[in-house]
């Protein structure tokens, strides 16, 4: 589990490609503090497992499902990456609940200066926009952000100078792909509402109305 508060920007040092899989070697410093084999590190918002490490880099495997659903397949040596270690139970929860399980990608369609902020317009599939609401949470390349507005084919977020400086957003341009993870709470609520579980309960709407509960 992560919070979407980026700890450092890493650099892709090496990449081994298969038909639909990758092995990434990532240069980093802060996220390697007390790291252990098997630890989880979010790379551009994707929860990946550390398979080896030394004092200044670590490696992770990218399986076919992740290859197909994220922007990791488009990386090249030298790419900058947002990194975050899994959250500690006793730490501050500064962002929102982030699983590191990316729902899909979006494309940067516009960047507009607005006071001291930059408003990003992100085009994405209707199936992802369905889960977004103004002032709700969204994770973009691992960054916990607040949705500004939602339209029929895109949504917007407003980025403060600190977030611009501490993440890879400042290096992205029009047309670049970003990883998106929608708020999992909304997805769970939808699942529970749509579930059709058989029940033997005799309590129905009619029963509640007859007994004055509704």
TrEMBL record:
Pathway: Cofactor biosynthesis; riboflavin biosynthesis; riboflavin from 2-hydroxy-3-oxobutyl phosphate and 5-amino-6-(D-ribitylamino)uracil: step 2/2. It comes from the Bacteria. Residues 1-96, 97-193 form the Lumazine-binding domain. Catalyzes the dismutation of two molecules of 6,7-dimethyl-8-ribityllumazine, resulting in the formation of riboflavin and 5-amino-6-(D-ribitylamino)uracil. PROSITE patterns: LUMAZINE_BIND. It comes from Ammoniphilus resinae. PANTHER family: RIBOFLAVIN SYNTHASE, RIBOFLAVIN SYNTHASE ALPHA CHAIN. This is Riboflavin synthase. Lumazine-binding repeats lie at residues 1-96, 97-193. Keywords: Repeat, Riboflavin biosynthesis, Transferase. GO terms for molecular function: riboflavin synthase activity. It catalyses: 2 6,7-dimethyl-8-(1-D-ribityl)lumazine + H(+) = 5-amino-6-(D-ribitylamino)uracil + riboflavin. Its EC number is 2.5.1.9. Pfam families: Lum_binding.
